[in-house]
Amino acid sequence: MARGGARQPGNPAPVSGPGALSKRTDGGPGQPIRAVTGLPYGQAQQLQSIQSAAPMSSSPGGNQAQPIPVQGGPAAAGPPRVPFGAPTQQPNTPVTAGAALGPGPGTEALGIPNMQNQDLQQLIPYLPAFQAMANQPGSSKAARNLVRQVMAFAAGQQSGGQ
Question: Which of 112, 43, 126, 160 minimizes the C-alpha distance to 146?
Fold first, then answer.
């Protein structure tokens, strides 16, 4: 009885030996190369060569096909999509609803806190230090703009504007 040649290890193989006697314990290469149909001419061959160049490790359930959600298909999640160019489904809502300008409700309708105003409110106590920094020779335009922005916000707070 001949005992030479390559042998397929058990999956997983028994414990590996030390050093030069070590062998794979993961059962060999991972996932098989998958053939994809329906691609334009030549792309299936290219995809198979890419898969063979960088084999993926094996994983539980790796040989099972996963459903791919398709727009409008049964696996698609969310509300149905309105095609581009279709008539509006909200004729009484202006397109600027939720924007900071134009007719309709502003950004407050989105329920998102105005983080810029909160940040500017926290910077008001540091305004004298910022002004001293902006008045230094060689001060950057950004530093001067920051001081102007905090000053305008503070003035709006005093007049009850924001």
Answer: 126
Whole-angstrom Cα distance, residue 105 to residue 83?
25
SS (H, E, C) 113-144: CCHHHHHHHHHHHHHHHHHHHHCCCCCCHHHH
Please choose, from the candidates 69, 72, 74, 162, the residue with its C-alpha nearest in 3D space to the C-alpha of residue 120.
Answer: 162
Q: Is the pLDDT of residue 47 over 70?
A: yes
Distance CA 58, CA 31 (A): 5
Q: pTM higher than 0.70 for the full model? A: no
Q: Omega before 67 cis (within 30°)?
A: no
Asked whether residue 4 carries a pLDDT value surpassing 60, the answer given is yes
What's the rounded Cα separation, in Å, for the pair 155 and 147? Answer: 12
d(CA 35, CA 53): 15
Contact at 8 Å (CB) between 134 and 141? no
Q: What is the pLDDT of residues 54-92, one digit of tens each?
A: 666 665 554 555 555 555 555 456 677 888 888 888 888
